[in-house]
């Protein structure tokens, strides 16, 4: 079983914000597959589906971004999922709006959700789908307000195109069962 985790913050206050792009991609997959999330004891909302004959666990942690690792680790343990079968979808301020990048491993790069996952799993060697959201001014207050803000009208087309591309990347990975090949095709 593969586990696809969209990172974000729970609650209506954060819906459709830049930091919730992971949730938005998972929500699009849920809509395509006509499945719904359900609450678990592992601090997450989950749905199980099949994509190209591969069992997939779709996940949205309910811990808020900074504690995402709690849910990721608990679900890995509960479903006996290896870290090699986990894909984390998250926002990336170091990429232009709508630009996507697949990575097999790496540092947290200042992303608190990734820091939490690394801390709870004890490893930085997990697959990521980075979704570019642009970068605001370089002071911390501007960054916080920016990631917790909604996408601008100018960003909407790139957002929608990026979500479609993210779904294509995920489907290709699940079809080929080869992340390196998927990276070579899309990066």
TrEMBL record:
Q: Kindly list the positions annotated as binding tRNA.
A: 14, 64, 66, 112
> What is the protein's quaternary organization?
Monomer.
**What organism does the UniProt record list as the source?**
Periweissella beninensis
Its recorded reaction(s) are: an N-acyl-L-alpha-aminoacyl-tRNA + H2O = an N-acyl-L-amino acid + a tRNA + H(+)
Q: Site (Discriminates between blocked and unblocked aminoacyl-tRNA): give the residues.
A: 9
- Would you tell me the protein name for this molecule? Peptidyl-tRNA hydrolase
Keyword vocabulary terms for this entry:
Cytoplasm, Hydrolase, RNA-binding, tRNA-binding
As for subcellular location, the record says:
Cytoplasm
Active-site residues per Swiss-Prot or TrEMBL entry:
19
> What HAMAP family does its record include?
Pept_tRNA_hydro_bact (MF_00083)
**Record EC number:** 3.1.1.29
